[in-house]
Design brief:
181 residues, mainly alpha, 8 helices, 3 strands, 54% helix, 7% strand, globular
């Protein structure tokens, strides 16, 4: 119960963060360049999601190029990507928006039960990240169709990371071979 309360608080803090973001850092979807706007529209149509609130600006965590905050909004740091790689990051985060819309149960379980700060592998090999990495490079995956009970069982048995890594490699996630950090 405490974990779910913490997760609800995360939503509240994300909303407050969204409201308090500096006006220099914040750019609404309508203010984005036509190129980015067109890309967002196409991806949202494919993913059957609404056009999200997008913040283009600095993210203070060194390895984080983008983030989807609880399915509420997306933040992208274009300075951490080379060339058009930020479009790949945007696709990755839009996929997370879709996951929050259509698999909220799985996303809630993953956020409550995996500690990405304590164990980076739990972040790197969680199904939502594998799916988003694959999608950002043009692959489709159905890894998020795995029932939440199966995630829980693998976690309980201590096989979660190994099994998710095997699935990622099978699906073609070349980054599954690379150390996560």
């Amino acid at each position: 119960m405490k974990k779910y309360i913490a997760f609800i608080l995360m939503y509240i803090f994300a909303f407050v963060d969204k409201l308090l973001a500096s006006s220099k850092e914040r750019k609404r979807f309508d203010d984005c360049s036509e190129y980015i706007k067109k890309h967002i529209e196409e991806e949202c149509r494919k993913l059957r999601i609404r056009k999200p609130f997008v913040i283009i600006g600095l993210i203070n965590r060194p390895k984080t190029k983008g983030e989807c905050v609880g399915g509420l909004y997306i933040r992208i740091d274009p300075l951490k990507d080379k060339g058009d790689d930020y479009l790949s990051t945007l696709r990755h985060e839009l996929r997370h928006m879709q996951q929050w819309k259509y698999r909220r149960d799985a996303m809630m379980w993953l956020h409550v039960n995996l500690d990405k700060e304590k164990d980076k592998n739990e972040y790197w090999y969680n199904p939502a990240e594998i799916d988003a990495r694959l999608y950002s490079r043009g692959y489709e995956s159905n890894i998020m169709d795995i029932p939440v009970d199966s995630f829980a069982e693998m976690k309980e048995n201590g096989t979660f990371i190994d099994q998710m890594k095997a699935v990622a490699l099978f699906l073609g996630d070349v980054y599954a071979e690379i150390d996560c950090y």
